[in-house]
Amino acid sequence: MSRPVTLTLTLLAGLALGYALGVTLPSVIWRRPLTKRSRRPSTLGGPSPTDLRVVNGVAGLIGNTPLVRIPSLSEATGCEIYAKAEFLNPGGSPKDRVALSMVETAEAHGELRPHTASCLFEGTVGSTGISLAMIARAKGYLCHIVLPDDQAAEKYALLEKFCAEVEKVRPVSIVNQDHFVNVARRRACVYDGQGDLDGGHRGYFADQFDNLANYRAHYQSTGPEIWTQTHGNLDAFVSGAGTGGTLAGTALYLKQHHPSLRVVLADPQGSGLFHRIKHGVMYAPEEAEGTRRRHQVDTVVEGMGINRVTRNLAQVLVPGLAHSHNGGVPGTPWVDDAVRVTDQEAVWMARYLVNREGLFIGSTAAVNCVAAVRTALTLGPGHTIVTILCDSGQRHLTKFWNDDYLRAQGLDVTFPDDLDFLGADA
Ligand SMILES: Cc1ncc(COP(=O)(O)O)c(C=O)c1O
């Protein structure tokens, strides 16, 4: 071969190699697993393929939320603390996943048909109602939401903007027929009695507490997303429970892939679940006669804490059902530990995070972050912990972020400079 031809071929080969490296290297670097050695992602990471996705309609915006590292909590504990930014869902919370899953499951079973006069009914403290109301608009349903009358005003306003019918009821115990869940179920029955499926319209009670499409949404999306985002490199998953869907679905998926992962329940004061996990009995000290201030769960936290085992929670707590997810083989528990979080700790954590990180979060996200720090302190430096930022503080301006309201509950509203209130060194 003549010299010029050889030179041209060498040049072409060089160009091809350069092009191939140029195309593949950035994606190799970007996809590098979060190993314990390479665990400081740069601030400006650049877009990932999911950031740049093009989607169809509002449903396409649900899920695939980023995982955000929280520098101050990580540095204070010597661990890596990450949180799933669920407040970035279009309806502002992980309940978008659940609402879509419940509606699509009902449609698949022929219980609902889009663009009929069918009406979605739900009893909720707000987030699921907002997500259902959003999906209802997108799919041509009506929506009727029943919720306690002591929730943050933003939630009622948002529901109305999504054209939902809003029914406020007094907060009472679940055994009372006037509990928001029981009222919603009744309203759906009455509406259903007037309609007929062939004519198109009917009443559908979504029933997030006991509808298994709830935990399945997290099993099918939240769990796999966390697994992909961490490349399986995580030591603990921390989450509170309202219906238990997030905890059950995500824990089941992650533990099936990583059996030694620690799943930790974050439980606000007034909830009985902490005792259920620690001692096998549902109990909250606030339930003791004479000390209770509120019906339901006695806390300023809106959306977490419960005093019964819902069907979704039963998937990970009731032995027979829990074993069914293990091929029927009794194994290690799906939920390994529980952390109790006081209202004061949640308030201080939310204030610490907005002050230090610019992260403006709601009350349940604050509970999760307190429990994530406690879990990190228990595990010791060098571990990776993932939790959930459920919603934004913007949804709680009139309650959890209202100083007068908090002071009236006997809570201190100062902004802590460090994490001393949790015994962490920040
Ligand atoms: C703001 C918020 N965070 C967390 C939760 C708890 O999630 P889950 O119902 O999956 O236990 C809820 C439940 O309604 C909620 O509204």
Strand content: 5-15%
Percent range for helical residues? 40-55%
Record the strand order, biggest sheet: 1-2-10-7-8-9
Query: What is the name of the CATH architecture of the largest domain?
Result: 3-Layer(aba) Sandwich
Instruction: List the secondary-structure elements in sequence, H or E.
Output: HEHEHEHEHEHEHEHEHHHEHHEH
**Mean pLDDT, all residues:** 87
Rough shape? Answer: globular
Global structural class: alpha/beta
Look at the structure and give the CATH class of the largest domain.
Alpha Beta
Q: What count of domains describes the coordinates?
A: 2
Low-confidence stretches: 1-33, 35-41, 288-295
Write out the distinct hetero groups bound to the structure.
Answer: pyridoxal-5'-phosphate
Radius of gyration: 24 Å
From the 3D structure, determine the CATH topology of the largest domain.
Answer: Rossmann fold
Main sheet properties: 6 strands, mixed
The counted number of beta strands is 10
Number of helices: 14
Note the gap between the termini. Answer: 69 Å
Membrane topology: Single-pass membrane protein
Cofactor: pyridoxal 5'-phosphate
Catalytic activity: O-acetyl-L-serine + hydrogen sulfide = L-cysteine + acetate
Enzyme class: transferase
